[in-house]
Design goal:
single chain, alpha/beta, Rossmann fold, 7-stranded parallel beta sheet
């Protein structure tokens, strides 16, 4: 898979550990260096702002997607290459997915998890063939990954679906893995509909 645009989900806060902000900035720098367009939630605060600013500072292209209702709360970034203001969160997620070939998730809260889980579910169902990943900064996603493993052990997630989730603590290595990712599974019902 050649990734020309990457959707990054992350928090509208910085979090309490400096490593979170540093990771967001490093991802932004790497995307600019690799000429990969950043697609993200359009905010100018927290990790979202740090990510976008670092990508822009490196000469990268940044596309923001933000709902009207959050444009003030998340302080819509005014210096982006492109900004899409949409009506709902559903439209935001759908447009971000349409604009990108893969997903990377930095630390964040409920909104970040919601965006990530929906993207991963779309890949699980075969509605898209896009890699979904966590940048596991200082073990931030360890508990969620343990839950995914438990769900697989207890028969709620198939092993091949668990493999859809890429995890790394090194941003450059994770980007390399995303570039080489091949979707390991397509559901039978999707194959039937594509005939």
């Amino acid at each position: 898979m050649v990734i020309r645009a990457l959707c990054v989900f992350c928090g509208a806060n910085y979090g309490r550990r400096p490593a979170y902000r540093q990771a967001a900035q490093r991802v932004g720098e790497l995307l600019a260096e690799r000429a990969i367009t950043l697609v993200y939630g359009g905010g100018n605060v927290g990790l979202m702002g740090a990510l976008a600013d670092a990508c822009l500072a490196g000469g990268g292209q940044v596309i923001g997607v933000i709902p009207h209702a959050l444009a003030e709360k998340e302080i819509a970034h005014v210096g982006l290459s492109e900004m899409h203001v949409v009506g709902t969160m559903h439209e935001r997620k759908a447009l971000m997915a349409d604009l990108a070939e893969a997903f990377l998730t930095l630390p964040g809260g409920f909104g970040t998890w919601d965006e990530f889980c929906e993207a991963l579910t779309w890949s699980q169902l075969g509605l898209q063939k896009k890699a979904c990943s966590f940048l596991n900064v200082e073990g931030y996603y360890d508990a969620l990954l343990a839950l995914a493993d438990r769900a697989a052990e207890d028969g709620f997630i198939r092993a091949e679906h668990r493999e859809l989730l890429l995890v790394d603590d090194d941003p450059a290595r994770l980007l390399d893995r995303l570039q080489s990712f091949v979707v390991p599974y397509v559901p039978k019902w999707v194959e039937r509909e594509q005939r």
